[in-house]
Structure formats: structure tokens, C-alpha cells
């Protein structure tokens, strides 16, 4: 599902804990063109629910995908956010 998403920008927030992944993502989303997709790579497990909650309340984004991958013995939480307005 997430393999077909066209990424406009990628944001690496590995090593940052709540609320910094959200803070940096909000700033990055606002710099995207409408329709653009931000891929966020995080190591904070709590970011999964944080991004889901943000997408429910925000009026200018849609959470179009999330995935969890293992890389070099580390779990990465990847979020795909689309700017809608």
C-alpha cells in the first residue's frame, strides 16, 4: 500500500522523542505544496499514536499510511502525511 505513495519530501526524526517528531513534522507539512506527501522516519514508538491523533484533529493533513520496519536492529516507524489544504 505505501509502496505506491509518491513522496514529496522526507523528514528524518530518528532519536527524537515526543513531542519533537510532531513539532518538526508540522513545520515540514506547512512548507509542502497542497497535495504533497511528507514521509517521516521516527524511532519513537509513541509517534504511531501521536500521528494518528494529529491526523484526526488537523484540518490540513491526511495520514495516508504508516509502517513499521526493522533496520540495523532498530525499529523505524514511518508515517506518510498528505497536505490537503
From TrEMBL:
<dbReference type="InterPro" id="IPR001455">
    <property type="entry name" value="TusA-like"/>
</dbReference>
<dbReference type="InterPro" id="IPR036868">
    <property type="entry name" value="TusA-like_sf"/>
</dbReference>
<protein>
    <recommendedName>
        <fullName>UPF0033 domain-containing protein</fullName>
    </recommendedName>
</protein>
<feature type="domain" description="UPF0033">
    <location>
        <begin position="11"/>
        <end position="35"/>
    </location>
</feature>
<dbReference type="Pfam" id="PF01206">
    <property type="entry name" value="TusA"/>
</dbReference>
<comment type="similarity">
    <text>Belongs to the sulfur carrier protein TusA family.</text>
</comment>
Amino acid at each position: 500500500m505505501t509502496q505506491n505513495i509518491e513522496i514529496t519530501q522526507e523528514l528524518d526524526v530518528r532519536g527524537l522523542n515526543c513531542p519533537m517528531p510532531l513539532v518538526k513534522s508540522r513545520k515540514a507539512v506547512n512548507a509542502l505544496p497542497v497535495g504533497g506527501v511528507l514521509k517521516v522516519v521516527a524511532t519513537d514508538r509513541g509517534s504511531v499514536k501521536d500521528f494518528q491523533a494529529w491526523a484526526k484533529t488537523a484540518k490540513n493533513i491526511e495520514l495516508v499510511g504508516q509502517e513499521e520496519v526493522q533496520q540495523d536492529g532498530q525499529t523505524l516507524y514511518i508515517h506518510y502525511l498528505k497536505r490537503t489544504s
